[in-house]
TrEMBL record:
Any GO CC annotation of this UniProt entry: spliceosomal complex
Gene Ontology terms, MF aspect: RNA binding
Record has Cytoplasm as a keyword: yes
Organism taxonomic ancestry: Eukaryota, Fungi, Fungi incertae sedis, Mucoromycota, Mucoromycotina
Protein name as it appears in the record: U6 snRNA-associated Sm-like protein LSm6
A biological-process GO annotation: mRNA splicing, via spliceosome
Domain Sm: 9-76
Subcellular location: Cytoplasm; Nucleus
Natural source organism: Rhizopus microsporus
Alphabetized UniProt keyword annotations: Cytoplasm, mRNA processing, mRNA splicing, Nucleus, Ribonucleoprotein, RNA-binding, rRNA processing, Spliceosome, tRNA processing
Family: Belongs to the snRNP Sm proteins family. SmF/LSm6 subfamily.
CDD domains: LSm6
Membrane-traversing stretches: none
Length: 76
């Protein structure tokens, strides 16, 4: 038998990292680092204990942050 992997969607992957630290890169080039609190089917993301980075420099700190899905470029 071949070793077959079940294909997973990005939402499936992100659901496995709920509660973990993540970095969200926006289309604008701004990065947010925080704890992944939740995400929905539109890829809207809620982060806790969030830090905002502009040009690699810490710009702001927020308790909770909501990022609309169409603004996100990648989540690592």
């Amino acid at each position: 038998m071949e070793n077959q992997q079940k294909s997973r969607s990005p939402t499936d992957f992100l659901s496995t990292v709920l509660g973990q630290p993540v970095k969200v890169k926006l289309n604008s080039g701004i990065d947010y680092k925080g704890t992944l609190a939740c995400l929905d089917g539109y890829m809207n993301i809620a982060l806790e204990n969030t830090e905002e980075y502009v040009d690699g420099r810490l710009k702001n700190r927020y308790g909770d942050t909501f990022i609309r899905g169409n603004n996100g470029k990648m989540c690592v």
